[in-house]
## 1
Amino acid sequence: MVRATRQRGDETTVFTRHYNSSLARQTGQPVAGFTLSLGVATLPTDALSAGQLLLAADNAELAAKRAGKNRVCAADPLVQG
């Protein structure tokens, strides 16, 4: 199952049950003159709720943009105490 929704501006969120981190990391390549900054977050490693998951992915995407764009960044793992 894959669901994609447009969030705001140029941001799109994709939800999937099956995640391949190596494939996601290869995605940040230029396509037809465009670049892709991708933030990746997973349950329950990076978040415990849908809201936390979106925030973690958004923060990872911002880190990708700050690092020079056209990159893939993973969210920081959730610290559970």
## 2
Amino acid sequence: MIHVLRPGLFTTIQDLGRYGYQRFGLSVSGAMDRWALVVGNRLLGNPRPGRPEWKSPIQGPKLPVPTRRLSPRLSPGAEIFPPPQ
């Protein structure tokens, strides 16, 4: 279970989508950058390439980090801008 101390602005959980339900009027949805989702999961050692991921486009959530073990974090395709001068 993940304990969220503060949700991030527009934070979502995304996966590769759900196929086979279009005939019922449901879109596939899923991550827009499928390649980054699959590669990110492989780099983290996840056995399934489509495991869900957190997307935080503006401000990330505040989550407690266990002191015994740090979880690896990866941000494929992240755009990092220098602060304005």
## 3
Amino acid sequence: MSERKAFNFLRSYAEALSNLGAKSQLKLYKAITEFALDGKEPADLSKTEKALWASFLGTLGPSREGWIHSNKARGPTGGGKSKEERSKEERSKENEAQGLFGIKPTNVKVEDL
């Protein structure tokens, strides 16, 4: 699986952390970053830090799971299935659907015009 390069840091995280001392803020900033990017759960949190962490997980957890799911769907090379992996039927449907502006081409005789 590829490495996650970015995540959304919400204003609500910063607002909640602003009420803590510098040491706790740093601990939780690092915890948020390490979890969002690498899936690493924090250790040695105080009761207050654990309470805030639990509230952050409401958005951090689904965000990370969504990234994992979409990353698996793209495959190891970052794209969809290769042509070899797609069934003949899938490729046939794609070919039928392709046309100018998504309109399926039709055979028109000159006499019909």
